[in-house]
Design goal:
The protein is of the alpha/beta class. It contains six helices and five strands, in the order αααβββαβααβ. Strands 3-2-1-4-5 form a five-stranded mixed β-sheet, with helices on one face. The N and C termini lie far apart (about 85 Å).
């Protein structure tokens, strides 16, 4: 019984206190703008909206779109394409186009030489001044994937290594889909 009386007294006191109005919870309030949140937080540093204001007012640098180095490495061949930020190709070569034929195109050595050839072409065409940032896009899991990675980390890739801002994997994944081809038996 005593507990109920205390609860009633507590709620009566709560109702007598004037509630602090929240800037955006009042009826008819418009959607807050970045400036209104910033002004509110500046005037009320203990406001729960401080985190929101910090997130909205942080000035992140707008980075330009990087050039892309696409490395497509299957079991049978390796393709490397260097593209401009708008995805138009600058250099596009494969192990077959630098002289490897038939089964030799799918080897680690062919991919290594292909990577070295592309690094040489980038320097020969004077593209190092244009390439400020580079995104490396890897696709599939052939021997060329490891070979071209070794090239970028080795002495041939020393000029491009510092410009790499992102490495991503674009290997195609199938969720269900159509029936696969029969596995090749040798």
């Amino acid at each position: 019984m005593l507990n109920n009386i205390r609860q009633v007294q507590f709620f009566a006191q709560k109702q007598q206190q004037e509630p602090k109005p929240d800037v955006w919870s009042s009826a008819g309030a418009t959607t807050p703008t970045v400036d209104s949140i910033y002004d509110h937080v500046k005037n009320n540093p203990t406001s729960p909206h401080v985190a929101t204001a910090a997130r909205l007012t942080t000035d992140y640098p707008v980075l330009p779109e990087p050039h892309h180095l696409h490395i497509y490495s299957t079991r049978h061949n390796t393709h490397i394409t260097l593209t401009k930020p708008d995805r138009n190709a600058i250099i596009s070569v494969s192990a077959g186009s630098i002289g490897f034929r038939k089964a030799a195109r799918g080897t680690y050595d062919a991919a290594y030489q292909l990577g070295a050839y592309v690094m040489g072409r980038i320097q020969q065409l004077g593209l190092l001044t244009q390439i400020q940032q580079l995104e490396v896009v890897l696709r599939d899991f052939g021997p060329g994937r490891e070979a071209v990675t070794k090239i970028l980390l080795g002495s041939e890739g020393r000029n491009l290594r510092g410009r790499v801002v992102r490495v991503c994997d674009a290997t195609r994944l199938k969720f269900g889909g159509t029936r696969s081809k029969n596995a090749r038996r040798l």
